[in-house]
Design goal:
85 residues; mainly beta
Length: 85
């Protein structure tokens, strides 16, 4: 979810850090995405989430075993991580 001020919230399963709160704890209520960023938009995928941060540009977090976060690696990321073009 995205509030009108750009704060991002996620909830649900968190096995692969896809909630972006820095944990792997499942959440049954919305928790703020870590990093103190504000977003213009966010989009969730299977086990990962990406967003357009107002300060850092595109960032992603969560599952990454196939490099789908675009950060140049394959390690899961527990909080928003800038993509590398």
């Amino acid at each position: 979810g995205l509030t009108s001020d750009g704060t991002a919230y996620c909830w649900g399963g968190n096995k692969t850090n896809q909630l972006g709160d820095g944990t792997r704890t499942n959440r049954d209520h919305p928790v703020a995405v870590g990093g103190g960023l504000t977003f213009a938009s966010i989009s969730a995928g299977e086990g990962m989430t990406c967003g357009l941060s107002r300060a850092q540009g595109p960032v992603c977090w969560g599952r990454n075993e196939k490099g789908q976060l675009g950060d140049g690696g394959t390690a899961a990321q527990p909080s928003p991580t800038p993509i590398k073009p």
